[in-house]
Structure formats: C-alpha cells, structure tokens
Write a structure and sequence with these properties.
heterodimer; A: about 110 residues; mainly beta; seven-stranded mixed beta sheet; four-stranded antiparallel beta sheet; about 0% helix; B: about 120 residues; 11 strands
Chain lengths: ~110, ~120
C-alpha cells in the first residue's frame, strides 16, 4: 500500500498569509494526486487533481505542485473561509489512500 | 449539476447488515467510476471500495474485503454498498463519490453529503 504523509498536522495563519501544505508518498505516483478541503460536518470538496489542475469553480488562490513522491498545496492570500482540514489522496494504485489531514486555523 | 444523494444509514447491532444507496443525477452515470469513502467520528478519510463505470471491476480495502459488496444499477443511476457482519469499527459517515473517469486513473471530483452508519449494541 502507498502511505501518504502530510505535514504539518495543523497550522495557524492570518488573513492574507500564504501557506503551504506538504504531502509525501511512500512511492512514486506520477501525478495521480488530489487535494480536498473539508469543513466540519460537511463532505470533502475537491480542490486539485492530477497534482496541479484546479477543479472547476475553485478559487485560483489554491494551487498544487509536484510529481513522483513530493507534492504541495499552496493557499495564497488566506481568507477566513479557508479554515478547514485539508487532505491529500493518491489514486495511482489500489488501495486508494489519504493523508492524515492538515487542520488550518485562521487567526 | 451533479448530485449524489446517499441513504440507508442507521443504527445496527454488531454482526448485522445494512445496504447503502447513492442516487446520482446530473451526469452520464455509466461513464464514470464510483466509490465509497468513510470517515469515523473525529477521524480522517478512509477509502472503502470502488467500481468502474460498466460495473465489471470492483475494488475493496483490506479492512472490509469479504464483508462488503459494491454494485451499481446503471439503469437506475444508483450505486450500492451492501455491508455484512458489521463491527464497531465500521461506525462512520459513508460518502458516495463520483470518479472523474470511467475506469483507471480517476480522482473523486464530486461527493455526496454522507450517511451515518453506527454499529453498536
């Protein structure tokens, strides 16, 4: 199974800040990596797919980079509504696996 | 507009069975893989099972293999998850998710609102 490790597990930032979340895979994924945002009591929402493609309707403040085993999600100019938990997920091979999540708090 | 509406969750005794349904609309159902992802209370996301668009191939997490069966009725645009021999650790919100492609290399681009399954005596 491919293990997905996110860092940090949590972070706190201010409105207007730029933050980056890291996701590392235990083996190469090519670019089969997605990022999701989940707010309390809500379903996950797709943000990024194929490592760097922005899902339709998602703010351009979200961007993804990487290939192989190292990936990043960057949120530029943080807004209060960005407070959420963020997950990476690989779909290169079964079983599909998720990172443990990164909780983002807006100060 | 893509819509996924799960139903069938509830309280079941350990060892019991339950069938979840996911009614899909807003896209050509048989052209996309579908999956189930669960989230235990206060914990992260765990992939459970997937099925390709034609229904010919199914995939399962080791934690549920042999106790869960995924299926789809493309004539009714509905995805199912039959759950047997439920355990306390199966307690979770179960999400139905749409794949972005018919078979391999898909991501989950749309998710339902989830249905809660509680296995408890």
């Amino acid at each position: 199974d491919i293990q997905m490790t996110q860092s940090p597990s949590s972070l706190s930032a201010s409105v207007g800040d730029r933050v980056t979340i890291i996701c590392r895979a235990s083996q190469g994924l090519y670019n089969h990596l997605a990022w999701f945002q989940q707010k309390p009591g809500k379903a996950p929402k797709s943000l990024i797919y194929d490592a760097s493609s922005l899902q339709s309707g998602v703010s351009s403040r979200f961007s993804g980079r990487g290939s192989g085993t190292d990936f990043t999600l960057t949120i530029s100019s943080l807004q209060t509504e960005d407070s959420a938990t963020y997950y990476c997920q690989q779909y290169y091979s079964y079983p599909i696996t998720f990172g443990q999540g990164t909780r983002l708090e807006i100060k | 507009e893509v819509q996924l509406l799960e139903s069938g969750g509830g309280l079941v005794h350990p060892g019991g069975s339950l069938r979840l349904s996911c009614a899909a609309s807003g896209f050509t159902f048989n052209s996309y893989a579908m999956g189930w992802v669960r989230q235990p209370p206060g914990k992260g996301l765990e992939w459970v099972s997937s099925i390709i668009g034609s229904g010919a191939e199914t995939y399962y997490a080791d934690s549920v293999r042999g106790r869960i069966a995924i299926s789809r009725d493309n004539s009714r645009n509905t995805l199912y998850l039959q759950m047997y021999s439920l355990r306390a650790e199966d307690t979770a919100v179960y999400y139905c998710a749409k794949g972005s492609r018919e078979a391999s290399g898909y991501n989950f681009d749309f998710w339902g609102q989830g249905t809660l399954v509680t296995a408890s005596s």
